[in-house]
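Appendix B: complex inputs.
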Amino acid sequence: MTMTRTLLPAWSLAQREVVRFLRQRNRVVGALLQPALFWALFGAGFHRGFQVGGGEGDYLKYMFPGTVALVVLFTAIFSTFSIIEDRNAGFLQSVLAAPVTRSGIVLGKIGGGVAIAVFQGLLFLALAPIAGISLSVGSVLAAAGVLVLMAASLTALGIAIAWPMESVQGFHAVMMLFLMPMWLLSGAFFPFTGAAGWLVVVMRANPLSYGVALLHHALGTGEAERAGLPDPVTALAVSAGFAGLMFVIAQFIVGRPGRKD
Amino acid sequence: MSDDTPAVSTTDLCRAFDGRTALGGVSLTIRRGELFGLLGPNGGGKTTLFQILATTLPFTSGRVSVLGYELPASAAQVRARIGVVFQAPSLDRFLTVGENLAHQGHLYGLRGTPLETRICECLELVQLTDRRKDIVGTLSGGMKRRVELAKGLLHEPGMLLLDEPTTGLDPNARRDLWDHLAALRDRGVTCLVTTHLLEEAERCDRIAILDRGRIVAEGTPEELRASIGGEVVTAVPRAAARLEPVRKAIEDCFRVQVRAIGGGLHIETKDGASLGHDLLRGFSRDLASVTIGKPTLEDVFLKATGRRLE
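Resulting structure:
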């Protein structure tokens, strides 16, 4: 029963998501190019005079894990745009009329979002040597694990936002007002040390900060301690907790009776 | 479930939403194996009733059973046994025809060889076997609709529900789709189709006319036409401005009820030939044409609602 009504449909929905993504080349390029541009421009702009933990720092290196997080954020969130398109086009209606559990729909969406986001994140990770970060099998595997966790929470967050929405425009507003600040205040862009006191409070309350910190640890950038980012154990615990919470919220929102009920 | 339970049975079905009554007490029985049409104007409640039967919309009160299963309690059983073709296209245009069907099969728990077999059978049925590897976005409107039909049939449903399936199709594709529906009915699949087109309703075994959330007439197209009795004479005045005076004059002269609809005057009568003849003699200056015909479903709708079906 679980197999036919939840797992098989979830697998199929995830697979569809990946195939769609690969057939829309501009999406593949777009989600990589914008973060790469951010990274190159900010890296060049702040190259001299970047202070971290009281000493001179390498901004290109510091910002690299945060840029990978941005790639994952963009890709995961954009993958949930399809919910709005599917609702408007009619595809979603036929899924809702099928004997599929709502968990199957959520799992499928997350599965697809994770597959795409991790694929993009790993592609971007190949640029690490340019940032002066040397990769090893171990660090890539660890980073991949972090990306899965991060992508799962962000896709679930995207589902929770997209499910009740009627237009992609509304989603863009949420992206600019909520998701971009979330990324800017995650330690991806500037370190905890040196930020104003109230800002540090916000940054510590931001679940994405822990994902970014975890990436620093996984890649062994050596910047996490100097920048005052959370330690690996705390970072892992909070990231896992965030993913779990987002899954429950997404599940709740998708399982709710629709607005027209 | 035994096969003598009706395909659909609703008793006093109501749905109110935002203080508006979408369905105001619909009692309806659809027998197994029939091609049943829900005819009515847009906004008359067809789509609401359709969505309730498709389990995608809740209702306020009344009873509904589909293929012997009560809603909403047994929605999961109903979903597994019905095929639904919504008005809005539900195909993924980035996937091929085959991929769309495989995905649909997975949603209904089909996989492996049984799924492959069904995909081949359904494509054969809608004559699209050679299009299996085509991306859906490249197909014509008529072909897309046929893929939707194949999608709805994939899990061998006992009943197929189709909401305005010919919307946006050219006349050939329309006729084609109705031929497919008739063929399905002949294979024993109950079909429920909503439409606002009279010529489509004519092709159904039985129809119900839904207006303002209520069923105003129900029966076979012949029964409904027979309920009018006799013939319908339609007279068109020479000048549109003279419609009302001419209507009044004919009513007074022949002591019959004359309805003005569009630019014409409709009169129901037992003997159309003699009334037509008298009209031509008595009103030749006022009338541009007089036609005599058997009652149509349009006349049935008109009689039941006092309005034209638009």
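The interface with chain A takes residues 17, 54-58, 76, 79-80, 84, 86-92, 94-95, 99, 102-104, 106-109, 111, 151 of chain B (CB under 8 Å).
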